[in-house]
Amino acid sequence: MSNDRPLVLPGETIDLSLIPSHPKNPLRLGPGLRHIPPSDIVPTAAGELITNPVKNSMWVEYNSNRYIPSQNDIILAQILRSTSDFYLCSLAPHTPPATLPHLAFEGATKKTRPVLLPGQLVYARVSLANAHMDPELECVHASTGKADGLGPITGTGCIFDVSLGFARRLLMARPAQDGGLAVLEMLGGEEGGGMAFETAVGRNGRVWVGSASARTVVVVGRALQETDRGRLGVEGQRRLVKKLVREMS
Amino acid sequence: MTATTTPEATFGVLPRADGSARYSHAGYTVTGSVNGPIEAQRREEHAYEAHVDVVVRPAAGHGGTRERHLESVLQSSLAQIILVKSFPRSLIQIVLQVENSPENDYVNTKLVQASLNFGIMPALMQTAVLALLSAGVPMRATATGTAVAIMHQDGAKQTMVDPSPRDIEKARSVHVLAFTSQDELLLAESEGDFTVKEWDLVYETARGICCRSRPQAKEGMAMLLDDESTGGPDMRQFLRSTMESKVAADLHWK
């Protein structure tokens, strides 16, 4: 464990020299930290403390399985049922349902609204996350009115559960460089024989894999789950992809 | 049955649970699982805080009055260190399954009046804390606990850390203490005859085990304290080193 990313446990005091200070930008606290007024910053989870002096932000990096909604997270939700004004969706098992207003879709009006059936998947953003209220979702950018890739998921595919840390790595801009995750590129590349598939990754630990061929869906889903559970490195991922492709062909 | 002197812990033994840990120390092995925050049933729902539900399952048979009592003691301690106010109307479920105890003390328990099982309390407490850390449940602090017995041998008083069931039977008084990582007393349960002076001695012994300062932060006074041999394992260092290996394994890609 390197010195610039120290281990913190809940309730420990953070060394003041580690807290980034920026003349203009306010300090931004990410997951795993809480601010006790006036000036205490205390970790609430066990993990590595990461600081970013450029963005003036800090957070605790850790892995877990239970999704706790927070604003602006991109998630995969499943429709449970519809009420007169909104859909009730599930983000994680055994949690209170999130609400998705009927009008929170691109181009939706009272006359033309998308009809979603129970069980259908939507790719959505958390627009409201508050301890005292059920979370609220949206499939449209509130200011621009554009969907930006959000909305109901269509096409044949299957959903796979992964850990939250793994979902976060998949959502990185460059998963191969930053997250040590090249399994999807390998499956679509020469190791996997150029499989054709698409994915949608939710911050709530769910990955949707879609493809015309059921075989591809199963191979990609299994590769993702085994990479997560086996904590495979890039070399391990290559071996896994080769093994899966050999077994399934 | 040989009692292990150093505590041991493994994480993620139950892959379906949100967090889990197996802990063994002083002959006790406990597996704990944590799920939460999840939706609470109507009767367990609090408007302003999460309900912490602790279930203790004995190694053999069904839980009885003893287990209910252990649960209530653990529940009130754990609710202090979990940030329950952040999750109103939800439930945090902690299940602790005793796998091994140094003696099969579930024989003839039906005849005995319900009383606290002091030997197992620190193990249950420690398992719950480790499982909570493994689940990433937001917490105010971590906690460490220990059991201390006062024995009278040849007219002299003696404190004994992590007593075996046989020692507890012979002991004049038995105490269980737990401290948070801010050195605050979290749990203090006592049984038997003892004076205030004896309790102070027990308090200092338990504090020495649970609240030893970190090696890199030792200076002046802490150095002096370190020189006296308190006996028993350094629980805080144990917690830190196990978490270190767990976090390193989770973040192997970094």
Automatic annotation (TrEMBL), chain A:
Domain K Homology: 157-214
PANTHER family assigned: EXOSOME COMPLEX COMPONENT RRP40, PNAS-3 RELATED
Protein name: Ribosomal RNA-processing protein 40
Subcellular locations according to the entry: Nucleus, Nucleolus
Cited InterPro entries: Exosome_RNA_bind1/RRP40/RRP4 (IPR026699), KH_dom_type_1 (IPR004088), KH_dom_type_1_sf (IPR036612), NA-bd_OB-fold (IPR012340), Rrp40_N_euk (IPR041054), Rrp40_S1 (IPR037319)
Keyword entries, A-Z: Cytoplasm, Exosome, RNA-binding, rRNA processing
Keyword Cytoplasm: yes
Single Gene Ontology BP annotation: TRAMP-dependent tRNA surveillance pathway
From TrEMBL, chain B:
GO MF term set: RNA binding
Entry annotated with the keyword Nucleus: yes
InterPro entries linked: ExoRNase_PH_dom1 (IPR001247), ExoRNase_PH_dom2_sf (IPR036345), PNPase/RNase_PH_dom_sf (IPR027408), Ribosomal_Su5_D2-typ_SF (IPR020568), RNase_PH (IPR050080)
Pfam families on file: RNase_PH
GO cellular component: cytoplasmic exosome (RNase complex); nuclear exosome (RNase complex); nucleolus
Keywords carried by this UniProt record: Exosome, Nucleus, rRNA processing
Residue ranges of every copy of the Exoribonuclease phosphorolytic domain listed in the record: 9-138
Record's subcellular location: Nucleus
GO biological process: nuclear mRNA surveillance; poly(A)-dependent snoRNA 3'-end processing; rRNA catabolic process; rRNA processing; U4 snRNA 3'-end processing
PANTHER family listed in its UniProt record: EXOSOME COMPLEX COMPONENT (PTHR11953), EXOSOME COMPLEX COMPONENT RRP46 (PTHR11953:SF1)
Family the UniProt entry places it in: Belongs to the RNase PH family.
Descriptive protein name: Exoribonuclease phosphorolytic domain-containing protein
Source organism (scientific name): Parathielavia hyrcaniae
